Amino acid sequence: MNTWLKACLAGSLLFTPTAFAQSSDDDDPYAYPEQEAERAQEKAQKDDDDAYDRRRKLVDETDEFREAAERESDDGFQSMARLDDPSLGVAVELVGGLLMVDSARGNFSDNKPAVGVRATYEFGRALKTENEMWRQGFIADLRWIYGSLSDGTDFIKGDTRLHYFTLAPAWVFRFGESDFGFFVQAGGGLAYQNTGITVGEEETKVNGLKPVLQYGLGIRGRPGRSARFMFRIEATGLRRGYANDFFLGGSAGIGF
C-alpha cells in the first residue's frame, strides 16, 4: 500500500507545471517623497548644466570668429577687402591742354597746345592696411608732356621743343563714398629742351637737360567702376631752372 502511494505521488510530480519567478515594476523599492524630490532636483541640475555648456560653446565659437576677423593679414588671415574691387590700380591716360611757357620776352607766358601720356599706379593698394582711405588715396604718376614754340622772322627764326619727364606722387581726397576726389601732387623730373636757331640758310641746334620740380592740384574721377573709365582736370606747375611753366588741361584713359 505504501509502495503504491509513493509511486502515485512521484508520477503526479511529473505532470506538475513548472513555476517561474515573475518580475514586475511593482518589485522596485518603494520611493519615498523625499527621494522623488531629490531625483527631480538632480535632473533639473543636469539640464541646466547641459544648457550652460551649449551656451558657453556658442560664445567661444563667436569669440574665435571675432578674433579671426580682427586678425592682421600677417597672422594668416586672408582679408576680403579687395574682393569687391579687384582692380590692379594701374591706369594709362592721354593728356592734352594748354602749356604756358615762361616768356623770355618779359611777357607772362607764351601759350601753346601740349600733348602727352601718363601712367598711374595706386601704390596705396600695396600697403598692408584695410583702410580704404589709405588704399585708394596714394597714387604715383609717370608723365611725359610735349610742347613747342616757334617765333622769328623770315631771316632769323627760332624753334623750341620741350619734353617734360616727371615722376610725382599724389594724395587723393575722395568726396565721401563717390568715385571722385580732389588731389594735390608734388614731384620732380627732367626737362629736355631742343632749340634750333635758323639764320638765313644756316641752322644751329642747342640741346639741354634741366631738372624740373612739378607741383599741382586737380580733380580725379573714375565714374562707373565697372567701365574703368578715368579722367582728370588739373593745373600743374613746372619749375624748369629759373623758368616757371604751367600746364592747364586734363586727361582721360582706362584703368586696370
Give the secondary structure arrangement, pairings included.
Elements: H1 2-14, H2 33-70, E1 90-102, E2 109-121, H3 132-135, E3 138-152, E4 156-174, E5 180-199, E6 202-221, E7 229-240, E8 243-255
Antiparallel strand pairs: 1-2, 1-8, 2-3, 3-4, 4-5, 5-6, 6-7, 7-8
Write up what this structure looks like.
This is Outer membrane protein beta-barrel domain-containing protein. The chain is of the alpha+beta class. Helix content is 21%, strand content 49%. It has three helices and eight strands. Strand 3 (138-152) and strand 4 (156-174) form a beta hairpin. The longest helix has 38 residues, at 33-70. It is rod-shaped and about 170 Å long.
Observed structural traits:
OMP/PagP_B-barrel, 21% helix, Porin, alpha+beta, 2 domains, 256 residues, rod-shaped, signal
Which CATH-level-2 architecture of the largest domain?
Answer: Beta Barrel
Structural class: alpha+beta
Strand content: over 45%
End-to-end gap = 125 Å
Give the fraction of residues assigned to helices. Answer: 10-25%
List low-confidence stretches. Answer: 19-25
Strand order of the largest sheet: 1-2-3-4-5-6-7-8
Major beta sheet, specifics? Answer: 8 strands, antiparallel, barrel
Tally of extended strands? 8
Basic shape: rod-shaped
SSE string, helix = H, strand = E? HHEEHEEEEEE
What is the residue-averaged pLDDT?
A: 79
Radius of gyration: 46 Å
Q: CATH topology of the largest domain, which one?
A: Porin
Number of helices: 3
The total number of structural domains is 2
Which class of the largest domain in CATH terms?
Mainly Beta
